[in-house]
Amino acid sequence: MSSIENMIIWMLARKGEVTYSMTSRMGPNSYDCSSSVFFAMIAGGFLSAGSMGNTETLFGMSGTNLKEISRGEVQRGDIFVSGTPGVSTGSDGHTGIFLSNGSFIHCSYTHNGIAVDTNDAYMSTRLPHHFYRIVSSGSANTNNKPQMVTLNIDGQFGNETAKRLQEYFDTAGKDGVISHQYKQIFNQNIFAAQFDSSLTGSNVVRALQKFLGIEQDGLFGPETIKGLQKYLGTSQDGFISPVSDAVKVLQSQLNKNKL
């Protein structure tokens, strides 16, 4: 027999006891937002063992296993899914389970694990929120797809690579744009760059520079490029080529969620 309480017990038992990971998402020591919800629904008897997916999978369950409701209707055991159906993978989606109308439990990057929050902002401040009630149990059209977007290893520093880097360092505004860069020959092939003459720099570049242990000016200059190339074990010429060996290694490491 299905049980909302058993579903919530599964989440509460792991509160503060596990970490967040998009790559090691199948437990028992780490989960991501969507895998934790699927495991909890299985524990509650709402899904069959082995069911798994991501926020897109949850959106796809609307009208069968899930019924969309308003925020005001939310009660214990209801689910939120943040994002836009069709484009909610990676950091463009989030999910969790309500403990009451005013609190919810979720596995988040911010908390590095499962935690309880009472502010809707923790569902994501930049994404639309959708609310669902579980209306049926048993089988569902699940697909075992991870929450994380997998990059093509093409060596091109485009918007998807920039966005995964923003997700990795959890910087504000995960828009896939390397903002406020000063265009020169060595960085002109960073296709995700927004070039201007402000010298303001980018938060994700600052995060990368801090990680590399170099000056944090937010600008993707030759020293930053050399530092990245050195860290990744590629040729240190301080130049990002249209198809770059360093970017290929970077993409491969981001797919593993481990720099």
TrEMBL record:
Keywords assigned by UniProt? Hydrolase, Protease, Thiol protease
Biological process (GO) annotations held by this record are: proteolysis
Boundaries of every NlpC/P60 domain copy: 1-138
Q: Which GO terms describe its molecular function?
A: cysteine-type peptidase activity
What Pfam families does the entry give? Amidase_5
Keyword match Transport: no
Q: Which family does it belong to?
A: Belongs to the peptidase C40 family.
What protein name does the entry list? NlpC/P60 family protein
Origin organism of this chain?
Lactococcus lactis
